[in-house]
Amino acid sequence: MDSLIKKPRLATVWLGGCSGCHMSFLDLDERLIDLHQMAELCASPLTDYKDFPEVDVTLVEGAVANEEHLEHIRHIRKHTKLLISFGDCAVTGNVTALRNMFGVEEVLDRAYRETSTQVIGIPRGNHAVPKLLDRVRPVHEVVKVDYFLQGCPPSADKIYSFLMDLLAGRQPKVEERRFG
Amino acid sequence: MSVKTLTIDGKMVTGIAGETIFNVAWNSGVRIPRLCHVGGVSDVGACRLCLVEIEGQKKLMASCMTNVEEGMVVRTNTERLQSHRRLILELLFAERNHICAVCVMNGQCELQDMAEELGMDHVRMRYLFPKLEVDTSHERFGLDHNRCILCTRCVRVCDEVEGAHTWDLKGRGVNSLIIADLGEPWGQSDTCTSCGKCVQVCPTGALFSKGRTVGEMRKDRRFLKYIVTAREKHQWIR
User: Fold this and answer.
1) Which has the least CB within 10 A, A2, A40, A153, B210?
2) What is the ipTM of this complex?
3) What is the rounded CA–CA span in Å between residue A61 and residue A20?
4) What is the pTM of this model?
5) Closest chain A CA to residue B106
6) How far is the alpha carbon of A11 from chain B, nearest alpha carbon, in Å?
């Protein structure tokens, strides 16, 4: 019978971040099995998907740093019921946003000219490499965010209790709201 | 010494004339949030987190700058105050580059603690990302303006306890900066005694000991109590 009851559909996405939040998600270890019983993981950097599906809950790791992120997050917002800023980069911009103190040109120059042994060119946006936004933005500056999960990264325990509350239809109580 | 009786959050408390609401509240177990206050030096009301409501007054008052009065009715944690405090914190975070994950004080920082305590889950206004200097010209210490909240604890401890008055402020509002002497690099200051008191009282990672990396900085304020006790009671006890 169990398999006939529709489970909530879960997705995770990875924008401008280091994937540390996803690593912490994987640190759920055997609790991933509990999670699987509560929800169906429909799309994530760990699965193969072409088009982002309709889902109930999406965890967003990373800040919005380039045009591809911007397009992606806007699309996701339309196809998900609850959007969660997952980790400090999504919530504050964090390390990804360190470049905001400099201009885009300065940053590109540093990466592709000053520190490069062989200067091939500076990517300014093409099919392979998306164009950087003038400023890295936290997710809630671009689309509506329903919940915020702090931490760099949020601990596996925090992710677990948050998701269990949310998937059971309870108001998630984040005990420790700690940045960093 | 006349005694004043007042009510703080529905609790009858007593203080001595000339004592601040903040001190009386803490002494009676009511913890009013604060960032610029540090026991042992004077108060200036810089951070505004200790704002309280006083019955009969429209204005919110900084409890560290307001003395107790007979019959006062004070509220320290109403919904309005909580919302103001969260806003103040968000403004502090938006004003400079407080990136906890890559800070020497990560895990020990009073600003970070306060965000957690007051339930600040994100910053609603746009971050300014100012381009600010890190002064590492001093042999033993560093000053990172990116982390500074302009609480002026360093200015006061240097002036009132060490007696050097190396630190002060320049500029106004969002452009204010902590400066050594007349604005020279800290390492070239004539007045700095390298005592490190400013480093120990700094609530964030703005002032730090060199050689500390992310999350490694620990601050120790016991020296302040020691000196103040010695000064007030003439007892050199730890």
Assistant:
1) A2
2) 0.91
3) 9
4) 0.93
5) A180
6) 22
- Is the per-residue pLDDT at A175 higher than 80? no
The CATH number covering residue B109 comes to 3.30.70.20
CA distance B130 to B94: 10
* B145 and B73 belong to one structural domain: no
- Ranges A120-129, B168-177, B216-225, most confident: B168-177
Is B95 part of a structural domain of the chain?
Answer: no
Chain A residues 111-130 with CB within 8 Å of chain B: none
In our burial notation (b when 16+ CB lie closer than 10 A, e otherwise), range A13-51 reads: bbbbbbebbbebbeebeeeeeebeeebebbbbeeeeeee
A134-151 pLDDT tens trace: 999 999 999 999 999 999
Q: Is residue B82 part of a domain?
A: no
**Domain locations in chain A?**
6-167
Q: Which residues pair with B178 in a beta bridge?
A: B169
Domain co-membership, B108 together with B61: no
| A81-118 per-position pLDDT tens digit | 999 999 999 999 999 999 999 999 999 999 999 998 88
- Residue B45 lies inside a defined structural domain of this protein: yes
Structural domain that includes position B179: 102-233
Q: pLDDT > 90: what percent of chain B?
A: 95
The answer to whether domain A6-167 has CATH 3.40.50.700 is yes
Q: Is residue B87 included in any domain, yes or no?
A: no
Structural domain total, chain B: 2
Tens-place pLDDT, residues B86-115: 999 999 999 999 999 999 999 999 999 999
Q: Are residues B224 and B114 in the same domain?
A: yes
Contact criterion met (CB < 8 Å) for B122 and A91: yes
Tell whether B125 and B184 lie within a shared domain.
Answer: yes
Does B102 contact chain A (CB < 8 Å)?
A: yes
Task: Using the structure block, give the residue that is written with the tokens 């005592």.
Answer: B195
Q: How far is A104 from chain B (nearest CA, A)?
A: 14
DSSP helix/strand/coil, A100: helix
B131: chain A residues, CB-CB within 8 Å? 101-102
- A146 DSSP assignment: S
